[in-house]
Amino acid sequence: MTTHGGYEPVFCTVVPPHVLDKLAQAEDSTLADPARRTLERDAYERTHRRLTTVVGAPSITAPVGAEPGKPHRTLYDARHRTDLPGKKVRAEGSDPGKDATVNRAYAGLGATFDLYLKAYERDSIDGNGLPLDATVHYDENYNNAFWNGEQMVFGDGDGEIFLDFTIPIDVIGHELTHGVTQYTANLTYFGQPGALNESMSDVFGSLIKQHTLGQTAAEADWLIGAGLLAPRVTGSALRSMKAPGTAYDDDVLGKDPQPATMDDFVRTGRDNGGVHINSGIPNHAFYIVATTLGGHAWERAGQIWYDVLTGGQLKKDALFTDFATLTVAAAKDRYKDGEELQAVLKAWEQVGVRTS
User: Fold this and answer.
1) CB of 169 within 8 A of CB of 247?
2) CB within 8 A of 344, min separation 6: which ones?
3) The whole model's pTM is what?
4) pLDDT tens sequence for the chain (356 residues)
5) Which residues carry out catalysis?
6) Kindly report the CA angle at 232 between 227 and 238, in degrees rounded to 5?
7) What SS3 string covers 267-324?
8) Does residue 257 contact residue 266 with C-beta atoms inside 8 Å?
């Protein structure tokens, strides 16, 4: 049995398992212990999500009387425990409180809602006014943030490697976009379709940040998770769409393993077949399209990607070539034989993905 009208939600985290695995092997227990605890918690939540999809979960709908085209946010505080959702601490329309983490999460949910509504006329992540629930202060020194198919959850980080996970607005947008994918193409979370799933979250997470800041493609940093890494880490972010493989190079974390082209495609059984690693390839393709076209990336480049994600032709088990081919068709359908089509063709050629 699946939930949410037949779509099967998955457990998706922003920090890849391979990063936490590396941390868990550190000789310094202040680094290793939080990473091990996070890995154990993630494994539990992943199993819990799988069981929920089998037995069924309560359907989530907009509250009675909710105004279409308006967000319905509720923030909860786990108080460093793991019971979800936790204590309700802020409702839609209420004033900011003293907890900066709650306020950032509330603003990030709103920014995500705004991008999808204003740019693509999508009413919340399901298109039907789905309430946006989020829990902060999850567990102790929890080094991750995740979408569990029903809500957002943010850890505070360990303060040594990761800071508060509500700091980067693109992390919030990234995780909520897993919900958009869940309600649309429902891409399988393994191998190339899983990497596409992750890439869609990076793409729209970055667009949400750019939209909030009013940045053009040329002005954007194209980093995912800038501001999340603690000062001791040699790195700028979790991932770079502009230059995959360069986000960090640290004695403890190791080197960013993302490839930018198919020449360096990574074959692995870990991380659900490398979903957080090989997503660098479609990420880079989007960056090329966006910067080639210029202007605001959520407009033409983002519109093409959104058309493919929501158009009904993208199959759950789509490979990179399938997705690339659909972006070519979407560009031609919306923009005819203009520069948009040429930008898409150029981008996929540059990253080594065929468009049939």
Assistant:
1) no
2) 289, 304, 327, 328, 331, 355
3) 0.94
4) 233 344 556 788 999 999 999 999 999 999 999 999 999 999 998 887 665 444 444 456 666 667 889 999 999 999 999 999 999 999 999 999 999 999 999 999 999 999 999 999 999 999 999 999 999 999 999 999 999 989 999 999 999 999 999 999 999 999 999 999 999 999 999 999 999 999 999 999 999 999 999 999 999 999 999 999 999 999 999 999 999 999 999 999 999 999 999 999 999 999 999 999 999 999 999 999 999 999 999 999 999 999 999 999 999 999 999 999 999 999 999 999 999 999 999 999 999 999 98
5) 175, 276
6) 40
7) CCCCHHHHCCCCCHHHHHHHHHHHHHHCCCCCCHHHHHHHHHHHCCCCCCCCCHHHHH
8) yes
Residue 224, phi then psi, degrees to nearest 5: -110, 115
d(CA 277, CA 271): 8
User: Is 301 in contact with 327 (CB distance < 8 Å)?
Assistant: no
Question: What is the phi/psi pair of residue 264, to 5°?
Answer: -115, 20
Angstrom CA distances, 117 to 88, 128, 179, 180, stand at: 26, 11, 15, 12
